């Protein structure tokens, strides 16, 4: 457990932050009182983008590599999408003042995949430049 916190501590803290934000009653967050239509989806995408970068950073540190391997990226994608699905299920069945939404899960998955793709792209570019 201590080793997990050593590598994935920032990602775990960000995941807890996401959980708190997604389970606090904000009223109708998808209503017209927000900045623009779809703002909620943009927030979901951004939160999971940051989470995926932190999670990949922990994986790179744990496996002591200069880039993330494709199998680790696939595992990270599955973990991130599962976490997004867990949050949506909690919103639907436990935190009844919020509503679980498939579109939120899609935004979570897109944000997570964007972050993982960015880490793959940047780490491969850095490693190509060094060689």
Automatic annotation (TrEMBL):
The keyword Transit peptide does not apply. It comes from the Bacteria. The keyword Mitochondrion does not apply. The chain crosses the membrane at residues 7-27, 39-60, 72-93, 105-126. Keywords: Membrane, Transmembrane, Transmembrane helix. Coiled coil: none annotated. NCBIfam families: vanZ_1. This is VanZ family protein. It comes from Mucilaginibacter terrigena.
